Amino acid sequence: MVESMSTDQAARLNREAWDSFRRQRDEGLVGGRRDVVERLVEGGSFLSVHHRELVGDVHGKRLLDLGCGDGGELISWARLGAQVVGVDNSPRQLTVARRAAEAVGIGAEQCRLVLADLLAVPEGLLRGDFDVAFSSGVLSWIGDLDRWFAAVSRALKPHGVFVLGAVHPLALYYRERERGAQDWHSYFDQGPFTEQLDATHRWNPAGDAVTTVQWMHTLGHVITSVAQAGFRVSRLLELPDEAEVYGVTGGPGEFLLRAIKV
Fold it and tell me: Is the pTM value of this prediction over 0.90?
């Protein structure tokens, strides 16, 4: 853990890291979501039953995906009839997203992609035009939740829906402890946590010079911050770590939160 690091510095390091991860996926060096285009072309979806249940019918609605990455979820929403805008910090990830959209016949008029740090979403997207804001798998990459959730609120129409999915913080904590993390002494440590990944890391077999910066947000911190940004939390799902991916036998793996802008 470092004493201090600006969120701008962290965004730069994480952009470089995710560009590297994406390149290595495209080169077949790293598994996991390297087949996004193929899966979508074959009619697959990257949305879970829980995603669709919490968001609801999106046909004809405007949906903002914050941290859209390779576009798997974003394009899955578009195929359900949403007008989508995806924001991500990695140019290489957005290149894959655009390729995937084109491969399934979704044009720029239905799917817009925006390169930006999630703590610096362009003002043009924060005018209360969206019916739904969706974000999955990016929470630990956000260094200022109050600032981020305030921006999400600004993006949504009154009574708009915000659905947030992430690895459960308890699962993250226990996984890092199992990996021997020396700088994460408590579930309540917030970070920032920096890690230099060498060629032994599963996401960096090419041995690129990669440094990641992440934060830890307790479930209480997340819910409180969402509420203070002007949302009413209507549902919180804690999903079991059935495959024991995070090493928490009988414990949580992920959580999904649904909130309404009030």
Answer: yes
